[in-house]
Amino acid sequence: MSKTMLKVSEINVYYGSFHALWDVSLEVKEGEMVALIGPNGAGKTTTLNTIIGALKQQNGHIEFQNKSIDNLEVYERIAIGLAMVPEGRMLFPELTVLENLIIGSYIKRVERDRMLDMVFALFPILKERKNQLASTLSGGEQQMLAIGRALMCDPKLLIMDEVSLGLAPKVVDSIYKVVRELNTRGMTVLFVEQDVRRAIREAERVYVLEAGKVVLSSEAKEVSEENILRKYFGVVESENDIA
Amino acid sequence: MTRPSFKTILPIVVVILLAVLPLLNVGAYWTFLLFLFFIYLVLASMWNLLAGYAGLVSLGQSSFIGFAAYTVGALLMMDISPYLAIIPGGVAAAALCVIVSIPLLRMRGIFFAIGTLVVSEALRIFFTNFKPVAETAVWGGAGIPIKAYISPTALYYLALILSLISLLLLKFILNSKFGLGLMAIRDNEAAAISCGVNSFRSKLYAFILSSFLTGIAASVFYLFQGHVEPFGAFGMSWNMAMLIAVIIGGLGTLEGPLIGAAIIVFFQQMLAGFAGLSLIIEGIIIVVIILTMPKGIMGVVKNLRAQRA
Amino acid sequence: MISPEILINSLMLGVMLGGLYAVIGIGLSISFGVMKIVNLAHGDFLVLGCYFAYACLSFFGIDPIPSLIILVPIFFALGLALQKFMLERSFKIDPNAPILLTFGISIILQNLYLLIWTPYSKALITSYMLMTLRIGKYNIPFIYLLDLLVALVALILLRAFLKKTYLGIAIRASSQSWRASQLVGINTSRVQAFAFGLALALSALSGVFVGLTLPFTPTSGTNYLLIAFGVLMIGGVGSMVGSFIGGIVMGLTQLLSGTFLGVGWQLFFTSIIILIALSIRTEKILGVKK
Which of B195, B194, B197, B217 is nearest to B205 (CA)? Predict the structure, then answer.
């Protein structure tokens, strides 16, 4: 039986008086690739931000490798093996591609050259542009840099928030190809994905979040895109659906 | 008819007391202290209007103080009656304000603060070099005398009336649409603009008004002082006093400047013998207050009231 | 009329002094860039360096330059402490609080100097400070040359630190995106403290050389704060080259206006330049911050 890497237990998160997450629980086992999907505003990014420590939950617990991380700051959680590719990428605009990657290895400096080689092997375009300022890259290249930077600290759990946003399908394909490769090599991945079909295809398990609550937790192969869209996203596919 | 509340009667009683005070033969020292209090009250209230309500932290109010003072001095040298020189002093300050707002209101936050500081420094240096009168006069010629034959009592009443006017004006403004707009700008400028508040114009009016009344207060003060020189007028001491008074009393409250001005006058008199010590202690008080009770004394009072409720 | 020799002499001195001014500005730039707050007591800490060195000289006979060995670490530690115990706390209370806090500190410092050392101007007087070198037709005070040298070395070392070391890159990263810095594991609070300590250490360094070059009074701090601001506005945040240019502009303004109009007017024209720079550049500087 594989070990639990991340365990989120019944967390409640508030923005002021707005109750954003209601008793949300999820679990990611070692080596798994888990997707978190849901309509806009469901609280997916809120969940990820709470896991990484940018938001504090009101109650409930978060455990990483069976140890509580509730009291750790963001940078302390990075130090124990979490890494995040945030929504909007959050690159350092005035630093070069290389500098963005180097600073990514801030907490694992010894491994820097090895990780750099790995990232350049996964994303050759970054090596080409290594001395360019991050702000001059295209959208797809920026996304690759964001992922590469997150990888530089050799994380155990990679958290990705909407990496496909604003990118051409082909570019997204190549990005997920890399992620799949990393997962095959043993990296645990928790990702939020807007594209339901892609999420079901790439993940082993899915959680569906709706209005701050987990409404479905299932193996990916047991759900279909149409069901999810209809039941949870309120999307009507054809006239036949209107019973 | 309902009985007027304690809250409305008390200020009226106080004002009447203050008005008859000089007639009660309490001595020149006390009239002087109250005179100072009124002046500091106006200056602090105006600084509070800018910083606490419009969100403009000004570190250069001394620009308007000094400029008004020199204007009054110049007018007196032209044999104009001191009473007639006071308003022009305020107008001169307001005119200066209009001119410097052109560059200054393009700056925000800390840059605005530094900008006001630069203006007052520039004026200080200018007047130090300008030397409008002969070397034998005040401060090697950089200062000018303000020879006004007004009695301290007359100046006392002028100061009292001025502080009443400015307090009432402030109260009126803050309850008006203009005041609401200012507070909106202070809290979130972008949001205020999207609600239709003309940010630039609101800030400009607040700035001009505060500089006008600051100038008037300065005119009255320097009529008492008898002379003006660049270091005292354009230097940091006025800025420090205003800032200290408002921070201690409570930024963004009406009562704050009242408390703060009283404390400043008290401190300065208590420590009069110890030169720079009063300012050091006031500086320490600012640091302590910002770290422990940033809303000043009024903030503590309001918290206590809220807890009791 | 002003002879061409005097003009060229002023130009050279302006550039050399400008180098030193660049160092004064870069300290403010680092702390502003990383912490988004301006230390209004920046100039007063520089003057603290002057007075410290003065005390070392008059009481212990220690020459100002060797006294840097003690001064720089003390100031660095002072910066760390200030950031950790006062600035960080006040920033959490309200983003504008640090302005008032540092203003309060400025008041304390200026009046402390007044009390201890009197309002009369002082200078760090040493044998080499009075030396003049003759280069061609021009007499260059040795100290100005030293200022330029020290400035260049400091700026080059700083640039190397910010570009090549992890901490240096972390400082630059923190000034560009605080959130992203946390995501790569940077303890932003510690980095901010270090940046402030560094800024104060640079103040100690520039303070000593300023004290050797020009006389100082308890209120000189205000002047140096404004000069640092001028450098920051002209040169932009965190740029060595920009700060150097900014410093030179300030230095030239000061020297040239002094030559043409007299010593008293120097600071007036530097103020005007700062005002112009502030009105033009505020948008740009704030724009980068977003």
Answer: B197
